[in-house]
Amino acid sequence: MGLLVFIFLFFSAFLLNPSNANNHHQHRVAKYNYRDALTKSILFFEGQRSGKLPSNQRMKWRRDSGLSDGATMKVDLVGGYYDAGDNVKFGFPMAFTTTMLSWSVLEFGGLMKNELQNAKDAIRWATDYLLKATVHPDTIYVQVGDASKDHACWERPEDMDTPRDVYKVDKNSPGSDVAGETAAALAAASLVFRRSDPTYSKLLIRRAIRVFEFADKYRGSYSNWLKAEVCPYYCSYSGYQDELLWGAAWLHRATRMPTYLNYIQVNGQTLGADESDNIFGWDNKHVGARVLLAKSFLVQKVQSLQDYKNHADNYICSLIPGAPFSSSQYTPGGLLFKLSDSNMQYVTSTSFVLLTYAKYLTTSHSVVDCGGTAINAKKLRAIAKRQVDYLLGDNPLKMSYMVGFGKRYPLRIHHRGSSLPSVAAHPAKLQCKYGFSFMDSQSPNPNVLVGAIVGGPDRNDGFPDQRSDYEQSEPSTYMNAPLVGALAYLAHSFGQL
Predict the structure, then answer these.
(1) DSSP class per residue in 364-430
(2) Domain of life of the organism in this record (predicted)?
(3) How far is the first Cα of the chain from the last one, in angstroms, to the nearest whole number?
């Protein structure tokens, strides 16, 4: 009889407090500590900082660098981020990073708890720089550092002595791609700071409007004028049309001014709204613009943007194995595989888009239509989770592709500051060519760039962990930025936040 009473009381406790059952279920299913991964994914940005580091800098092996950036053009360009494992400040990927970090916070910042302020700090480090880069009307300073000379050296950012040449776009040599992306970044960030710092938010949106006008009025691709400087690193292969649509979409969301809705309605088709380019990264923003505008239709009921729901659906359908119109490749271990160079950026951006679109579909009680097959939000979330789990260690090599996360992760990442002794460990300057002895060594990097996502495995799930293999072993800011939002969602959904 005593046993029956015990069983009755046990089940009564579960019925009276369903959160017990919920927590049990969640902790059973969560394979990874997404909250820890979220913390680290944001911390990574501190390792990429250029300029005068603040007193609350947590990545202690870094020091001040690039303190005279912009001096050659008599403009203050101190600050911002190094894009990857080099010491150049490329404005195009930096702006995209800023847009995606902002979008991460706008969709999932409410779930981030203590990490929200760190995410905002990461955004502000970029926007402070972008405001400096756009200080003069009809001009954007788009790069600091001679990339070819920088890449001929292997030295710490604190030591760099390669030319810090400044490159710009203006009326005579336009760059609608980099200008459109910069406008998107400033507009998206203005929404992030709207409540917490209204004065700063207004400054960002005013600048975004001005920069977008320049992007639209003086049309052209920045690669045409700066080919020797930006190619092959950040050539605008997809043209500038996607950035104009993306910039307008963000200004529409940030301002709610009819001007931008009208601009999208008039120019959407010519800017490639319905092209079937199913790739989303630092170069091509069409997918992002489609999803953003689909929200206006789904959630705000802007009927004139209904086509963007169809365009967004087409992209989602391309990702779903076995669905009509599926066109994406996956590795044998299940990783989305788009390109051999830094493939993980497409994994993180796609995961974020899937979770964000699932949110819009849930709010509007909608589904994705794949040639008559209905795909619901739950399916999208499952695909996104599978990709993030692969990245965190659920893969054939049982390796985390986030540095410092899990028991096994890349030790020899293609990153100058991480691979060379820190200033604290080796105060004397390390000369340009001297650093290559460290680059060529098989020793693990002395400084752990916590939270860095590397380019990732090849199409067969192989990963050599070689420092010289930049395609697979180099981290970048735009790989981390979309993952921040995805990890916040997953950490919350498994009761970790």
Answers:
(1) HT--EEETTEEE-HHHHHHHHHHHHHHHHT-STT---SBTTSSS---SS-S-HHHHSPPTTT--SPP
(2) Eukaryota
(3) 41
**Is residue 8 domain-resident?**
no
d(CA 473, CA 56): 29
Q: What is the mean pLDDT of each run of 10 residues along the chain (497 residues)?
A: 47 41 49 97 98 97 98 96 98 98 98 97 98 98 97 96 96 98 99 98 98 98 96 95 98 97 96 88 97 96 95 95 89 96 97 98 96 94 98 98 98 98 96 93 97 98 97 98 98 95
State how far the Cα of 26 lies from the Cα of 43, in Å rounded to an integer: 26
* 367 vs 357: CA distance, rounded Å: 10
If one counts the domains in the chain, the total is 1
Q: What burial class does residue 96 get, using C-beta atoms within 10 Å of its C-beta: 0-12 exposed, 13-18 middle, 19+ buried?
A: buried
Catalytic (active-site) positions? 414, 465, 474
Tokens of 99: 């847009």
Nearest C-alpha neighbor of 441 from the set 462, 463, 421, 459: 421
Listed in sequence order, the DSSP H helices in 30-175 are 34-47, 91-108, 115-133, 147-151
CA-atom Rg of the chain in angstroms? 23
Q: How far is CA 80 from CA 24, 142, 452, in A?
A: 43, 12, 17
Say which amino acid occupies 422.
Answer: S
Q: What is the CATH number of the domain that holds 257?
A: 1.50.10.10
Burial (CB count <10 Å: 0-12, 13-18, 19+), residue 398: exposed
CA distance 384 to 403: 20
d(CA 248, CA 216): 10
**Do the domain assignments include residue 18?**
no
Q: What is the DSSP string of 440-482?
A: T--SPPSS--TTPBP----TTS-----TT-HHHH---HHHHHH
pTM, rounded to two decimals: 0.94
Q: 97 lies in which domain range?
A: 34-494
DSSP string over 239-301: -SHHHHHHHHHHHHHHH--HHHHHHHHHHTTTTTTT------SSS--HHHHHHHHHHHHHTT-
